[in-house]
């Protein structure tokens, strides 16, 4: 079963809608049980808040324990290493149904989204809410990618993706998860061959699913991930983040794979402003001359796989609150129906009639659906108050009543009385009487998923911070990084973001300032000033390049200047790039400028590569070979401070030396007889299975 | 195994000490495994922060999963209802080793402390960090008590304590948990017979342990819980909260029970200011003319029980950072050793020598202990940097160097270079040169466990809030409640505390203000003003009475005016009080004043009680009978909005009607043969066991 963007905890303080997201997640789990699925796949944003409230975390844990823990035999055999990505220093496996102490009947696999992405830098690295579920054995978190944290993370070496390999009977399934990173960065990593996919040698025999959580609809340059940039060995891409429901796998021009976009399971935006264009509403109910009524319908997807064949079935969710969106122009109503737009009471009466119609429409639809479900043997659900949004074009109207007071009359009949009406005006007319749709701020906001008010608050913080900082004449810390740190502090509720930024920045500054015992204070100030300026400049450049260090960036530009025509570069790991990254794992060379970098890297790489004892294809020139995956020996040696690519592959690099000797042997291991896969307790057979793990390691 | 006050997460950002608390908790779990204990008992403050960071929660979850989940047979049979206190709406039991889907080898039972107490009011009631561990099956959380939340909670009806009943062989153990509430309230509840202990009928055959987490050392009136106020049927009280280690059970004058105080497993205060007096240090190392050196030693306790006999063994913890505290007077040093106290450099040299001596002392002790442990077959531990605190009496010295700069020299040699020195002066001398010990603020602060700086920040917030609010001429909301809400917001990191307070207050206000359709605005203002004043007054009175409603308070005063001589009133549940509380579950009577209350309650109660169909002892006069426990029929009928007494008994009141019919039968059920208790998986026998549950219900 596929689901995504459950956004649990969204609007949880709302007296009417507070339990919506959790109720729908419960329905999804119940559907998964009903359809007797092998496992549940989630494509990010399980949680709406980066730090979910206790109430939310508690309910999610309870639901997962209730529906996923039971005696049902798990029939999917894990062929990848169950310990990859496990908590450092502990013995229990990363994959919960491999733990002999837990009776997992229905495993859940999930990547993180942009809302619930990892933050912080403790002994276990960055952590997110999914880690809490994973460490307690309730889900299997995959696709973790460390974020570049401030200046210290310039050594960042791309994204490595290791699959979870599963088998049931003759069907072999590889799950590739890439949790959300900023689109800018993902775009860059894809373009510059820094996304390394580790695939089994017989990848063509596997059904390969890629889970990701990025913008699909472009919002400015590099503000989305192009659909056609993934490897041709992928069979299906499950795309999270975009909230409209496009379950049916869609063809991508020139690619073999298709994209399925299950869409969100809860309405986090009522489609005002630019959000409206993004949301493709699945049912258009009725259409009049000057208004359209949409009714939102949400689904989970049932994915059936047999070998390389698959079938996707959308299952409508019944606990989703009906949502009707409509549009009306008062001027048009004046023309068509003779509405007196100078009379406030008259307008109010007109709008109330409209809203009442929409409520009836929503309720009728609910009742029809409910009746259909009951016919099909489902339980009857009590009617839910609908979400109603009427967008009113007030152009030419001078006196409008207060929309909040207007909504009070609908209390108890709709779920959102406070914002049922949204007023807007055609461009050129400056003011409107009531609530005004907030104008899109000039600044670029990364996340198109935010409501306008969220964006507005974001912009205000940024603006305030920038204004404040630029007035300070900072001696040690630059403005740019501080502004980002404050954003994380505000958006991700990370109280240590600023502290971390400051201490990292200071550490970096210290590197550039060497002191004798008796230094001159004036000299010190000068030195500090220079170093700060340098770091500030570097930081800004790195920001423009999607958070990636300057040298690598320069190289990527040189190689991959065309955005659209690049086809599946992600598999491509060339030696030049590899040695360049190795280089960066040492203390960063001083005074490297942006332009010098690519040349340097290219010059160094071929000379160094053979000395490292790489095999048959020691130093090929950079190529666009699409089938690089079987040449994993070519992958750059993991640098000391590497990204943890996927949670489920986190510990790989540490284990590499021990495995090296047996790599050849493991690679040719045959699989266990398929009868084993139906054993009730994975526990008993775990020791046995360990020998059958498919090894994806490079060196 | 007994442990308490682990304060995990304390000082977690400290580069040296950050992992101390988690390391010691790990050691405790390892000791529990080593000694093959039946279960672990924690007496509160497992977490230092009310909302632990992800890092802390993650590590604690991982440790519990690592050490508590295994195939080891649990030999303690649960005789109380495993479902009492389970998550509402879910099927898994509250006691983790009764869950057939979890292999629990070593159960952990815990109450909450004052640091990690429940907050908020979601669908599952107030939640705390322990709930996250409990819902994921990692611990068994007991002793939950809802806090009185603002005005709406005036219906608060005391504290009901239901035990967890365990048996191993012929030994029967009853665990009574009372999580922390404000001392004021606990004191009041004890004095006014509102703590109801539900005990098995044959309580004398059980070994009865009471876990609590309150101040034991008095800090002003009602700022501690007297040692002698508990029921005589209790055999042992395990007292959390107090950080000094007094494991050896101590006699309580005039009582049969003893008190064991395991003490904290981590140093959260370096004993400056008033904290010093509170901490009884277990080892005095050496003593010179003008200074004492203490070395802190921390223990967990191994409790062995056979029938009613028990034995307590203190086990020293090895991962506890050595802590040496010393005291020096510069004036005395001038007299005795001829120190020139006008020479700053001379003083610095003198102090450095002292600190160096203390470091050596600490290291020697560590090495000796380590050597002893190694002799006993334990692993050698790498030496930990010690905590050193030198209190310097600077009376008569005018020029002192900066203590932070002083500490820099000891970086890498001690764990707390920033605060190794603390300066203070004899009273009368106004100023000192360096860091001054913060003076105890005038305001009464409830928690003697706070450091002075924590207290200071607390006072500041309170003062600021009060000043601000009193300047506002508030029309609707009173100052008093708001100040409390802001305190919760700050201390417990509960972002909704203020919102909750406001909406509750408004709800209460609304009750007193009834509006016609056409009301006069001036009239409204007047009405609102009156109601606000009334509520404000009531709130303040309730605050003075420990958060308990006025009527009950008045009654308690009348009955229990003597603080010290009250002996075991807690078992006493009289009808008058009962009906009084019942009364309060209706909308609170208007215009009740403090003085009128006791009379009214006394007058009403006897008349009403028989009408409610209470049994044989319908309306006895209030008595001090100590053996009330077997007369549970007398307990007041649970009011609609009752406190959830203990987590493990939460669902009792809801289940009462269903159980009523079978109560007599259940009460006489005989226990299962003891052979059963050693079955490997509690799972298989759970259905069977359900019939044997001991019923403690009252009506």
From TrEMBL, chains A, B:
Residues 591-602 have a biased composition (Basic residues). Its cofactor is Mn(2+). Residues 310-489 form the Mre11 DNA-binding domain. Residues 649-685 have a biased composition (Low complexity). CDD domains: MPP_Mre11_N. Keywords: Chromosome, DNA damage, DNA repair, Endonuclease, Exonuclease, Hydrolase, Manganese, Meiosis, Metal-binding, Nuclease, Nucleus. The active site is at residue 115. Residues 534-699 are annotated as: Disordered. One of its GO terms (biological process) is double-strand break repair via nonhomologous end joining. GO terms for cellular component: Mre11 complex; site of double-strand break. It is found in: Chromosome; Nucleus. Residues 623-634 have a biased composition (Acidic residues). Pfam families: Metallophos, Mre11_DNA_bind. One of its GO terms (molecular function) is manganese ion binding. Its main location: nucleus. PANTHER family: DOUBLE-STRAND BREAK REPAIR PROTEIN MRE11 (PTHR10139). Core component of the MRN complex, which plays a central role in double-strand break (DSB) repair, DNA recombination, maintenance of telomere integrity and meiosis. The MRN complex is involved in the repair of DNA double-strand breaks (DSBs) via homologous recombination (HR), an error-free mechanism which primarily occurs during S and G2 phases. The complex (1) mediates the end resection of damaged DNA, which generates proper single-stranded DNA, a key initial steps in HR, and is (2) required for the recruitment of other repair factors and efficient activation of ATM and ATR upon DNA damage. Belongs to the MRE11/RAD32 family. NCBIfam families: mre11. This is Double-strand break repair protein. It comes from Antrodiella citrinella.
């Amino acid at each position: 079963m596929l689901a995504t963007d459950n956004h649990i905890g969204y609007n949880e303080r709302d007296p009417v809608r507070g339990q919506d997201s959790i109720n729908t997640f419960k329905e999804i789990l119940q559907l998964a049980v009903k359809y007797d699925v092998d496992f549940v796949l989630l494509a990010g944003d399980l949680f709406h808040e980066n730090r979910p409230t206790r109430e939310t975390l508690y309910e999610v844990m309870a639901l997962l324990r209730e529906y996923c823990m039971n005696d049902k035999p798990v029939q999917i055999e894990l062929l990848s290493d169950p310990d990859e990505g496990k908590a450092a220093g502990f013995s229990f496996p990363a994959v919960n149904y491999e733990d002999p102490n837990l009776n997992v009947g229905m495993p859940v696999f999930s990547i993180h989204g942009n809302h619930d992405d990892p933050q912080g830098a403790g002994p276990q690295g960055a952590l997110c809410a999914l880690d809490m579920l994973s460490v307690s054995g309730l889900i299997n978190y995959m696709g973790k990618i460390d974020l570049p944290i401030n200046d210290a993370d310039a050594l960042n070496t791309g994204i490595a993706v290791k699959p979870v390999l599963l088998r049931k009977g003759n069907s072999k399934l590889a799950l590739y998860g890439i949790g959300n990173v900023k689109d800018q960065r993902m775009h860059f990593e894809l373009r510059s061959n820094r996304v390394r996919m580790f695939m089994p040698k017989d990848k063509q025999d596997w059904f390969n699913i890629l889970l990701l959580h990025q913008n699909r609809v472009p919002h400015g340059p590099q503000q989305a991930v192009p659909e056609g940039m993934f490897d041709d060995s992928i069979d299906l891409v499950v795309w999270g983040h975009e909230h409209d429901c496009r379950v049916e796998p869609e063809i991508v021009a020139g690619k073999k794979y298709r994209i399925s976009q299950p869409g969100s399971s809860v309405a986090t935006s009522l489609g005002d402003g630019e959000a409206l264009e993004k949301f493709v509403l699945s049912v258009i109910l009725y259409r009049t001359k000057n208004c359209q009524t949409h009714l939102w319908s949400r689904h989970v997807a049932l994915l059936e796989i047999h070998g390389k064949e698959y079938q996707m079935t959308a299952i409508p969710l019944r606990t989703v609150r009906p949502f009707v969106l409509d549009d009306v122009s008062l001027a048009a109503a004046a023309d068509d129906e003779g509405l007196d737009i100078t009379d406030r009471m008259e307008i109010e009466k007109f709008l109330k009639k409209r809203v009442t119609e929409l409520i009836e429409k929503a309720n009728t639809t609910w009742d029809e659906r409910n009746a259909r479900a009951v016919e099909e043997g489902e339980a009857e659900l009590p009617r839910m108050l609908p979400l109603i949004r009427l967008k009113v074009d007030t152009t030419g109207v001078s006196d409008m009543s207060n929309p909040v007071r207007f909504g009070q009359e609908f209390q108890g009949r709709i779920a959102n009385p406070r914002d049922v009406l949204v007023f807007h005006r055609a461009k050129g007319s400056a003011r409107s009487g009531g609530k005004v749709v907030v104008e899109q701020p000039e600044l670029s906001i990364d996340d198109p998923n935010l409501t306008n008010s969220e964006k507005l608050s974001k912009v205000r913080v940024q603006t305030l911070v920038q204004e404040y900082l630029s007035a300070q004449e900072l001696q040690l810390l630059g403005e740019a990084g501080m502004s980002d740190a404050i954003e994380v502090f505000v958006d991700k509720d990370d109280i240590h973001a600023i502290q971390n930024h400051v201490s990292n920045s200071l550490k970096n500054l210290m590197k550039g300032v060497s002191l004798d015992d008796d230094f001159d204070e004036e000299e010190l100030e000068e030195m500090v000033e220079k170093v700060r300026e340098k770091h500030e400049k570097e930081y800004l450049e790195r920001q423009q390049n999607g958070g990636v260090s300057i040298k690598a960036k320069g190289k990527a530009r040189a190689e991959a200047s065309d955005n659209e025509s690049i086809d599946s570069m992600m598999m491509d790991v060339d030696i030049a790039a590899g040695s360049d990254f190795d280089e960066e794992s040492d203390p960063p060379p001083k005074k490297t400028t942006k332009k010098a970098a690519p040349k340097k890297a290219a010059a160094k790489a071929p000379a160094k590569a053979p000395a490292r004892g790489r095999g048959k294809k020691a130093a090929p020139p950079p190529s666009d070979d699409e089938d690089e995956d079987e040449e994993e020996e070519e992958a750059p040696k993991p640098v000391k401070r590497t990204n943890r690519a996927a949670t489920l592959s986190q510990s790989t690099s540490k284990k590499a030396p021990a495995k090296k000797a047996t790599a050849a042997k493991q690679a040719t291991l045959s699989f266990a007889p398929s009868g084993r896969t139906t054993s009730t307790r994975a526990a008993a057979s775990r020791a046995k299975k360990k020998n059958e793990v498919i090894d994806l390691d490079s060196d």
